[in-house]
Backbone:
C-alpha cells in the first residue's frame, strides 16, 4: 500500500472530521486526507479508488475544492464491477456537471453501460444521463434511451422515460422520435412507468405542437379512463397515502389533461365528468387530498369553459381560503389569482378574507395576498381598499414595507377618482414609508400637484404639516421642498383654503426653516440637497424679507465637496447678488407639467418599436443627432415669431439663451437687447449646466416632448432641479405644438399658430411618416361632447409605385374608444397625387387628464410585395 | 420540475445536496446558505413554502433536519410536500428509524435512495415498497 495513503476507512474519516472542535482542526484533517488521496491518484492506486472517491464526495459536501478527483470518476465508471461503477457515477453527478469538457470523455462508457447485460448497471447509466447529460451527449445517446423505453424490466423503462425528458429538453429536435414510444408507455399498468410516461408526455406536448396534436387525438380518452380507474380503485396498500391511491399519479394525470384540454373544446368535453367526480369525491381533510383538489381546480380553470365545473372550482377555493392550515390558504390565494381572469365577481366575494391575509404574520401568505388585492382593486372599491392597506402600512414589518408601498402607489395612481384623494393618499404613504417610495412615483405626484392648480395651497400646507410630523422620509422631504419652493407664498398667505382644512399660521421664516432643515439633514442625498438649493433660490424671490437669510444659507455651500452643490450655490449666489433685475423672472413658478409627456415617457419602454415618432423622423433628414441643435434654434426663433412671446419675459430669455448657447450667429434679429445682462447671466448658468454636452439642457427638455426612449427618472429630475429648467419650460410649453409640426418633417402644411385655447380648431399633425408613406391627421370636435374627437386621416404615397390592398389598423389604450369608418379606397396611386381618406372617431374617457395616444399598423402591397409599417402616435394636441 | 434538493440541519450543515440544474460550486454554496437562512427561523405554523428568487422552496422539518425542494413557480406545492414525506418514510424504513448520523455516515446510500425515487427532477416511483425492494437488490450487489 502507498505509504502516504492514510489507509483510513470512509467511516473513520467522517468520524475524525466530526470530532474536530474548531474549523481550523477540520481544515487540517481535510488537508491531510486530500493529500493522501492525491498521492493515491498519482500512484494510480486501484484497490482504494472507490473508497477515496467516496471520501472526496464527503469532503466536497463540506465545501472544499475537489476538482482533482474528476478523472477518478471516469476511471471508476470504466471499471467492471457494480460497486466501483456506482461510486463512479455518483461522483460524476456530484463533482461534475454538464458544462465540463471532461464529461464528453464519459460518453463512450455511458454508451457501453446503456447496452450492458446487467440491468442494474444500465440503471446507473440512465440515472447519470438523466441528471447531468449535455446537449451533445443527448444527441449521441438518444437512440439507446429510446430503445430502453421498451426494455423488459419496468425499473429501466421508467428511468429511460425520465431520461428522455432531459434529452428532449436539451435537444427539442429529437422530440418527434419519442412520440410513439411514449404513447405505449401511457397504456402501462405499472405506476412507476405510467407516472414517468405521463410526465414525458406532458413535456413532449409542451415542446412540440405535433406531439400535442397527436396525444390529444389519440390518448385523451385513454387518460381519462386511467384517471377514472385510479380515482375509483379500491384500497391499495402499496400506493395508499391518507386513504387515496397514489395521489402523485392523480396529480400528474390531471396536469397532463390540463395540457390536452387547454384550447380544445372536444378534449375538454371528454374530461368534464371525471373532473367533476374528482372535484366532488376527493377527501379534503388531508394534505394529499387537498393536493389533488388543488390540481383539479387548476385544470378546470385552464381547460375550455364549462360553467358548472368552474362554480365547483371556485367553491373549493372558497373552502380552502377559510381553512385553518396556512398551506391551504396559500395555495388558495395562488389559485384565486388565476381565477381572476375567469370569474372576477366570484373572487371579489372573498375580498375581506383576502385583505386579512395581507396582514398575516407569514411573509409567503402576505406576498400572495397583496398580489391578489392588487388585482382586485377597481374604481368602486379603491377607496376602502387603499385605506385598509395604508392603515396596515403603519404597523407592517420593515421588510414588507417596500412591496406594500409600491403596490399602494401603483393602485392610487391607477384608480384615483379625484386629485385631492390622490394627493391625500400619497402624503400618507410618504409620511409613513417615504423611504420606500420610488423616484418615478414622486415625480408622478409632483406632476399631478402641478396640474391641480386649485389644490396648490392645500397641498403645500398639508406637506408642511407632514414635514413637521416626520422629516425622516426622504421622498416626503423632496416633495415638500419642491412644493414649498414653488408655492411657498400660498403656504404663508393661506391661499385657496379648503373647508376641510384647519387654518395654520406659517411665517416666511418658518417656510425657509423647512428647506434649511432639508438642506442640513445628514441623511439627505444629493438630489434632495440640490432640490433644496433651488427651492431656496425660488423662495428668495417669493419672500423678499428672507432674501438675505437665504443668501447666507446658499453661501454656506460654496465650499461643498460635492461639485454639483458647490457650483449651484456659487451660481445662485451670483444671481441673488448681481442680477436682481432678472431674478423674479428666472424663478417664476414652473408652468404646469405635462402629464401626457410624463406618462408617455413612463410608458417609454413599450414604444421602442416606434418607427415614425417625430424623434426618429428627425434623425432621417439630419443624419446624426448633433446638427439638430441648429435647426432647433431656428425653429424656436420661428415659433416665438409666430406666437408672439408666449410667456413674456421667459420667452425672450429663452430665445436669447438658446441662440447664444447653441449657435451664437443665429440670433442676429434678436430684439431683446434690454435683457442682455440677464441673458449673460443665464448663459453662465447654462454653460456650466449639469450635463456635459453644452447644448443638452435646453435640448433635452425640448426633445423630451417627443422622445420616448429617455429614462424617465434621470431626465425629469434633471428638468426639475436643473437651474436652467424654468425658462425653457416656460417657453417650450405653448410652443410645443408648432415645434412638433415642424420637426415632424417639413410637413407641407404650414404650422397653425397656437391660439391659447380660445379657438376650438386644432392643428393638424403628421401622424406618421416613413420613406414610403405619410399620414396626416386633422381634428374636429363635435360640439357638446368634450370627450369625442373626429380624426380625418389622409394617407399619401411618397414612393413611385402604386400601393394596393392598403389597410390601416389602429389600436388605443383602454381609456380610449376607437371607431374606424371605412376608408375611401384601398389603392394608393404613386407620387402622392391622390390620397386615401379615412375617418376615425375617438372617445377619450380621461379627457383633460390624458392625451390621445395610438398605435398604428399599415399593410399594403407594393409591386406585389407585402409591406408592413408600424408606429406609435404620441404627438396629438394635448387638449383632445 | 425539481431544481435541487437540500437536506440541512439546524446549524446549516448540508447533509445532502442534489442539483438537477447545473450551478457553479460557489453558486451552490450561496444557494445552500440562503435556503437555510430562509427556512430555519420560520414559525412552525407558517406555510411550508417560501419564494426563492424566481422559484419556490417547499420545505419540511423533521426533528433537527430540514428537507427543502426548490421547484418551479407553477408546480403543485402540496404535492411536493407529500413527496418530501414519502422520501422521509423511505429513509426511515431503509435505516429503520433514521437519524441524522445515519445520513452522515451513509451519505452515499442516501444519494442511492434518492436516485431511485427522483430522477431528472421528476418523481420516478411512488411505491415505497417498490423502492425498498429495489434498494435491497442493489445492496446485494455491493
Residues:
Amino acid at each position: 500500500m502507498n505509504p502516504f495513503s492514510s489507509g483510513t476507512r470512509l467511516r473513520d474519516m467522517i468520524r475524525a472530521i466530526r470530532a474536530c472542535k474548531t474549523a481550523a482542526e477540520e481544515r487540517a484533517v481535510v488537508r491531510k486526507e486530500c493529500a493522501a488521496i492525491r498521492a493515491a491518484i498519482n500512484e494510480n492506486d486501484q484497490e482504494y479508488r472507490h473508497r477515496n472517491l467516496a471520501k472526496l464526495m464527503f469532503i466536497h459536501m463540506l465545501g472544499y475544492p475537489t476538482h482533482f478527483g474528476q478523472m477518478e470518476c471516469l476511471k471508476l465508471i470504466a471499471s467492471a464491477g457494480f460497486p466501483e461503477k456506482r461510486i463512479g457515477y455518483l461522483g460524476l453527478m456530484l463533482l461534475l456537471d454538464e458544462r465540463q469538457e471532461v464529461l464528453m470523455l464519459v460518453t463512450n462508457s455511458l454508451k457501453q453501460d446503456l447496452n450492458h447485460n446487467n440491468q442494474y448497471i444500465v440503471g446507473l447509466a440512465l440515472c447519470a444521463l438523466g441528471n447531468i447529460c449535455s446537449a451533445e451527449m443527448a444527441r449521441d445517446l438518444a437512440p439507446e434511451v429510446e430503445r430502453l423505453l421498451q426494455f423488459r424490466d419496468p425499473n429501466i423503462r421508467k428511468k429511460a422515460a425520465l431520461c428522455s425528458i432531459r434529452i428532449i429538453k436539451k435537444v427539442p429536435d429529437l422530440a418527434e422520435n419519442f412520440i410513439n414510444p411514449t404513447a405505449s408507455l401511457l397504456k402501462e399498468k405499472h405506476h412507476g412507468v405510467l407516472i414517468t410516461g405521463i410526465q414525458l408526455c406532458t413535456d413532449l406536448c409542451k415542446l412540440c405542437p405535433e406531439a400535442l396534436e397527436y396525444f390529444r387525438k389519440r390518448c385523451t380518452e385513454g387518460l381519462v379512463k386511467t384517471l377514472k380507474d385510479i380515482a375509483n380503485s379500491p384500497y391499495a396498500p402499496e400506493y395508499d397515502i391518507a386513504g387515496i391511491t397514489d395521489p402523485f399519479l392523480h396529480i400528474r394525470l390531471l396536469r397532463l389533461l390540463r395540457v390536452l384540454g387547454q384550447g380544445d373544446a372536444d378534449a375538454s368535453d371528454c374530461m368534464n365528468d371525471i373532473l367533476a367526480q374528482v372535484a366532488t369525491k376527493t377527501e379534503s381533510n388531508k394534505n394529499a387530498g387537498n393536493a389533488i383538489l388543488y390540481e383539479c381546480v387548476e385544470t378546470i380553470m385552464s381547460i375550455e369553459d364549462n360553467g358548472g365545473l368552474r362554480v365547483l372550482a371556485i367553491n373549493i377555493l372558497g373552502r380552502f381560503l377559510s381553512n385553518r392550515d396556512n398551506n391551504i390558504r396559500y395555495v388558495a390565494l395562488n389559485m384565486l389569482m388565476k381565477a381572476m381572469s375567469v370569474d372576477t365577481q366570484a373572487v371579489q366575494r372573498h375580498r375581506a378574507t383576502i385583505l386579512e391575509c395581507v396582514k398575516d404574520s407569514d411573509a409567503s401568505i402576505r406576498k400572495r395576498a397583496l398580489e391578489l388585492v392588487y388585482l382586485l382593486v377597481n374604481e368602486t372599491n379603491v377607496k376602502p381598499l387603499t385605506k385598509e392597506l395604508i392603515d396596515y402600512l403603519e404597523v407592517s414589518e420593515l421588510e414588507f414595507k417596500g412591496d406594500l408601498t409600491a403596490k399602494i402607489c401603483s393602485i392610487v395612481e391607477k384608480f384615483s377618482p379625484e386629485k385631492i384623494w390622490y394627493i391625500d393618499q400619497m402624503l400618507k404613504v410618504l409620511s409613513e414609508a417615504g423611504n420606500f417610495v420610488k423616484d418615478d412615483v414622486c415625480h408622478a405626484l409632483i406632476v399631478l400637484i402641478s396640474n391641480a392648480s386649485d389644490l396648490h395651497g392645500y397641498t403645500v400646507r398639508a406637506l408642511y404639516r407632514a414635514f413637521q410630523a416626520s422629516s425622516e422620509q426622504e421622498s416626503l422631504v423632496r416633495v415638500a421642498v419642491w412644493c414649498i419652493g414653488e408655492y411657498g407664498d400660498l403656504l404663508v398667505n393661506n391661499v385657496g383654503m379648503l373647508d376641510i382644512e384647519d387654518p395654520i399660521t406659517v411665517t416666511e421664516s418658518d417656510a425657509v426653516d423647512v428647506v434649511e432643515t432639508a438642506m442640513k439633514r445628514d441623511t439627505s442625498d444629493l438630489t434632495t440637497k440640490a432640490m433644496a438649493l433651488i427651492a431656496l433660490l425660488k423662495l428668495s424671490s417669493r419672500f423678499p424679507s428672507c432674501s438675505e437669510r437665504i443668501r447666507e444659507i446658499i453661501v454656506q455651500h460654496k465650499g461643498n465637496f460635492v461639485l454639483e452643490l458647490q457650483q449651484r450655490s456659487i451660481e445662485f449666489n451670483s444671481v441673488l447678488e448681481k442680477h436682481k433685475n432678472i431674478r423674479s423672472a428666472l424663478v417664476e413658478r414652473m408652468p404646469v407639467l405635462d402629464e401626457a409627456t410624463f406618462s408617455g415617457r413612463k410608458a417609454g419602454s413599450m414604444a421602442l418599436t416606434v418607427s415614425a415618432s417625430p424623434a426618429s423622423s428627425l434623425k432621417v433628414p439630419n443624419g446624426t443627432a448633433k446638427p439638430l441643435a441648429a435647426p432647433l434654434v431656428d425653429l424656436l426663433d420661428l415659433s416665438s415669431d409666430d406666437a408672439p412671446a408666449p410667456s413674456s419675459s421667459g420667452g425672450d430669455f429663452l430665445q436669447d439663451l438658446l441662440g447664444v448657447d447653441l449657435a451664437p450667429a443665429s440670433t442676429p434679429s434678436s430684439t431683446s437687447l434690454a435683457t442682455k445682462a440677464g441673458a449673460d447671466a443665464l448663459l453662465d448658468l447654462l454653460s456650466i449646466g449639469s450635463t456635459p454636452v453644452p447644448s443638452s439642457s435646453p435640448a433635452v427638455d425640448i426633445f423630451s416632448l417627443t422622445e420616448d426612449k429617455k429614462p424617465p427618472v434621470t431626465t425629469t429630475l434633471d428638468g426639475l432641479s436643473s437651474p436652467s429648467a424654468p425658462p425653457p419650460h416656460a417657453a417650450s410649453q405653448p410652443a410645443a405644438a408648432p415645434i412638433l409640426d415642424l420637426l415632424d418633417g417639413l410637413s407641407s402644411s404650414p404650422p397653425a399658430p397656437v391660439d391659447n385655447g380660445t379657438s376650438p380648431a386644432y392643428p393638424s399633425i403628421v401622424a406618421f411618416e416613413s420613406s414610403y408613406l405619410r399620414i396626416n391627421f386633422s381634428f374636429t370636435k363635435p360640439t357638446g361632447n368634450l370627450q369625442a374627437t373626429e380624426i380625418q386621416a389622409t394617407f399619401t404615397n411618397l414612393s413611385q409605385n402604386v400601393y394596393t390592398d392598403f389597410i390601416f389598423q389602429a389600436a388605443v389604450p383602454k381609456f380610449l374608444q376607437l371607431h374606424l369608418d371605412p376608408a375611401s379606397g384601398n389603392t394608393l396611386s404613386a407620387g402622392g397625387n391622390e390620397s386615401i381618406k379615412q375617418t376615425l372617431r375617438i372617445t377619450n374617457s380621461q379627457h383633460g387628464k390624458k392625451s390621445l395616444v395610438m398605435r398604428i399598423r399599415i399593410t399594403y402591397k407594393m409591386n406585389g410585395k407585402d409591406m408592413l409599417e408600424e408606429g406609435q402616435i404620441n404627438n396629438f394636441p394635448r387638449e383632445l | 420540475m425539481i431544481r435541487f434538493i437540500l437536506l440541512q440541519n439546524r446549524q446549516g450543515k448540508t447533509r445532502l445536496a442534489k442539483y438537477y440544474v447545473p450551478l457553479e460550486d460557489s453558486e451552490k454554496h450561496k444557494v445552500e446558505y440562503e435556503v437555510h437562512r430562509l427556512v430555519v427561523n420560520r414559525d412552525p405554523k407558517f406555510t411550508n413554502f417560501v419564494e426563492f428568487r424566481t422559484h419556490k422552496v417547499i420545505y419540511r422539518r423533521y426533528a433537527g433536519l430540514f428537507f427543502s425542494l426548490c421547484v418551479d413557480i407553477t408546480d403543485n406545492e402540496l404535492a411536493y410536500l407529500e413527496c418530501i414525506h414519502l422520501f422521509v418514510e423511505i429513509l426511515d424504513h431503509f435505516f429503520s428509524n433514521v437519524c441524522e448520523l445515519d445520513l452522515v455516515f451513509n451519505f452515499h446510500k442516501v444519494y442511492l435512495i434518492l436516485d431511485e425515487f427522483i430522477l431528472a427532477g421528476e418523481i420516478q416511483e411512488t411505491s415505497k415498497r417498490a423502492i425498498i425492494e429495489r434498494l435491497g437488490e442493489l445492496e446485494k450487489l455491493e
